[in-house]
Every structure is written in structure tokens, then in C-alpha cells.
């Protein structure tokens, strides 16, 4: 297989600062498109991965980035979905087996086939090659794993929708957030701020549960009806048995039993963040109210397109801070310090 070299930013080793390198991109296959990347969001998952915090070692050098927005620059000979100049995005995966029950149902993120879901970076594709993500100038991807970004969404603020947006849209849609439903969003960060916007647009009554009241004004501006500090024990007393659905966006270990106590009978707590350590759950926190503890992982291609169209219809984008590639390492430190409102986006022209 022949390749073209493109510029990218990569972590050469675990916990090492990211640096500019060149990486190979495959030549266009019949169903591939070449994307001229315009913007790439910085997700907390990028930081976990390059710092080897999830225990998988990693395929270094790692080029992170799975919130990718750009423009089609070239198409393979049999591409039918896109034309040169189309605005497109790529999210957390770039392939799957396409034939298992989940893939056929549009749940490619849960692929159970031999290939499995191929992550946009730090994975091995069907050609046996390592995948490199969106902190780069260009990306080659199968047309079936790209998304159309509606004209109503600016590319820079749309990029984080490809992970943060779908990570919240999928559980909110699945557990039927809407009128008459009380939804709590735990954490007001890159994920949480999109959860507030989307749940509000769906018509739910939205509460933010954050460690402090520092971001209360932001939370209410984004669409929350209520805002509580979880550092105050009175919060858990006042809200006991309140919510139909709680989505936990936090990647730190919380006392989930306390949060389960905030659910109504038959309520569900959905875990979205992926902490480094196991999460202990007391059986009676579930048994006592026929409560459920669940997880959710991004969304399939069709649902991600549905999310983008929903966001365009309701005027929803991420709140972003655009940076040059030379500030990626600084941005990582600021994410860890919760010093971003609410998503960093890399201007790929600076790579």
C-alpha cells in the first residue's frame, strides 16, 4: 500500500509532550475520501490515552484527535456520498466489521465482529496499520464513516460535536429525555456543557450537579433550570428521589451511591466518564428503588448524523477556545486544571 506523508502532532511516548512530526496516510481507495482538516477538538480522552492512564500501553507515537471537522479535498473512484468541497466530520471511529448484529443495527460503536470498532487513533485498521487521529493536516477515511456537517454549523464549533455532542445526545435520546422528564448532568465541562444544551433543547427540566457553584451563571445561560453544588451535603438531602435520568460526565471517581439516591423509582444513572479506577456500587442503592446503573459509548454513524442535524436545527454548538498547534501541551494542562470554557479546538492550519 502506498502512502502520502502529512504533518501532525504526536506524543512520542507516554506522558511526553506532543511534538510536530510527519505521518503516513494511505492513498485513496475506491470508497475513501481525503479530508483537508480545518479544526480538531481536544477531548479528555486524548489526554488519558497519551498519558497511558487506561492501562493499554498505546501505539506510540500517538496522534490523538477524534473531533474532526474539515472539507473533502479528493474522492475515490466509487465514492457516492460526498463531493470535493463538502463539509464533513469524523468522530471516534473510522471503521467496523459492518456485518455483525450491532453494525447492521447502526450501532457500529458496539461492533462485535472480528475487526471490531476501529478507533480513529491508537488502533489497528483492517489493513494492519496503526490509525492516526485528527491532530493533523489531512485524513483519509472510508466515506461510510464520515458525517455531513450542516451548513448552519460553523466548522470550529462543530468539531467537538463529533465526540462530546454524540456522547451526550445518544444516552439522552435512548433514555428519552424530554418534556416532563427531570434530567441531571453531573459536571459542567466539555461533555457536560453539551449535555445541558441538548437536554434543554429536547424539552427536559435540566439540573447541573457540579462540585461548586463557580460555573452557575454559565450553567443557567446554557439552558439549565437548576444548579447545585455537590460539595454541599445538603444537596443530596434536598434532591433525594428527584431525577428520572442522571448522566455522569466526570472522569474522576465519585461516590456513585450518593448519586443513585437522587434517582426516582425506575430512574437511571448513566456513566459516561471513564475514571482510572473501578467504581464501587452498593447493591441496595439499586435494589431499593428499582434503579439502574448503565453506561453509554458515543453513537453510531446514523445517530451521529441525527445529532448533527438536531444541533443545526436548534442552533447548538460547543463553546470553544480556538488555539494554534503550538499550544496543545499548554491546553492539556489547562484541561486538567478545568481552565477551559468549554472545549479547546486546534486550528489545523497551524499544524
Automatic annotation (TrEMBL):
Keywords: Metal-binding, Oxidoreductase, Zinc. Its EC number is 1.1.1.2. Pfam families: ADH_N, ADH_zinc_N. Gene3D superfamilies: Medium-chain alcohol dehydrogenases, catalytic domain, NAD(P)-binding Rossmann-like Domain. SMART domains: PKS_ER. It catalyses: a primary alcohol + NADP(+) = an aldehyde + NADPH + H(+). InterPro entries: ADH-like_C, ADH-like_N, ADH_Zn_CS, CAD-like, ER, GroES-like_sf, NAD(P)-bd_dom_sf. SUPFAM superfamilies: GroES-like (SSF50129), NAD(P)-binding Rossmann-fold domains (SSF51735). Its cofactor is Zn(2+). Residues 16-346 form the Enoyl reductase (ER) domain. Belongs to the zinc-containing alcohol dehydrogenase family. This is alcohol dehydrogenase (NADP(+)). It comes from Streptomyces yunnanensis.
Amino acid at each position: 500500500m502506498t502512502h502520502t506523508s502529512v504533518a501532525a502532532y504526536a506524543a512520542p511516548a507516554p506522558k511526553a509532550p506532543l511534538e510536530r512530526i510527519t505521518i503516513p496516510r494511505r492513498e485513496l481507495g475506491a470508497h475513501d475520501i481525503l479530508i483537508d482538516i480545518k479544526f480538531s477538538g481536544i477531548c479528555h480522552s486524548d489526554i488519558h490515552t497519551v498519558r497511558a492512564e487506561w492501562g493499554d500501553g498505546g501505539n506510540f507515537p500517538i496522534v490523538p484527535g477524534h473531533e474532526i471537522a474539515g472539507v473533502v479535498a479528493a474522492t475515490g473512484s466509487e465514492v457516492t456520498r460526498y463531493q470535493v468541497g463538502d463539509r464533513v466530520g469524523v468522530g471516534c471511529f473510522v471503521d467496523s466489521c459492518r456485518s455483525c448484529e450491532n453494525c447492521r443495527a447502526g450501532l457500529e460503536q458496539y461492533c462485535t465482529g472480528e475487526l471490531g470498532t476501529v478507533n480513529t487513533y491508537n488502533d489497528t485498521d483492517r489493513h494492519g496499520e496503526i490509525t492516526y487521529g485528527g491532530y493533523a493536516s489531512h485524513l483519509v477515511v472510508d466515506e461510510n464513516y464520515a458525517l455531513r456537517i450542516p451548513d448552519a454549523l460553523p466548522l470550529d464549533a462543530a468539531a467537538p460535536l463529533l465526540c462530546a455532542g454524540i456522547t451526550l445526545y445518544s444516552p439522552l435520546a435512548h433514555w428519552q429525555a424530554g418534556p416532563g422528564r427531570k434530567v441531571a448532568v453531573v459536571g459542567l465541562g466539555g461533555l457536560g456543557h453539551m449535555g445541558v444544551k441538548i437536554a434543554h433543547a429536547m424539552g427536559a427540566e435540566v439540573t447541573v450537579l457540579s462540585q461548586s457553584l463557580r460555573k452557575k451563571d454559565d450553567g443557567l445561560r446554557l439552558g439549565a433550570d437548576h444548579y447545585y453544588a455537590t460539595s454541599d451535603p445538603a444537596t443530596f438531602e434536598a434532591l433525594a428521589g428527584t431525577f428520572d435520568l442522571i448522566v455522569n460526565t466526570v472522569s474522576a471517581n465519585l461516590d456513585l451511591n450518593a448519586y443513585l439516591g437522587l434517582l426516582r423509582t425506575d430512574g437511571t444513572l448513566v456513566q459516561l466518564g471513564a475514571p482510572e479506577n473501578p467504581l464501587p456500587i452498593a447493591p441496595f442503592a439499586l435494589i431499593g428503588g428499582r434503579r439502574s446503573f448503565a453506561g453509554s459509548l458515543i453513537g453510531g454513524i446514523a445517530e451521529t448524523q441525527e445529532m448533527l442535524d438536531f444541533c443545526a436545527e436548534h442552533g447548538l454548538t460547543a463553546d470553544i477556545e480556538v488555539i494554534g498547534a503550538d499550544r496543545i501541551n499548554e491546553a492539556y494542562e489547562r484541561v486538567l486544571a478545568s481552565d477551559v470554557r468549554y472545549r479547546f479546538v486546534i486550528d489545523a492550519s497551524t499544524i
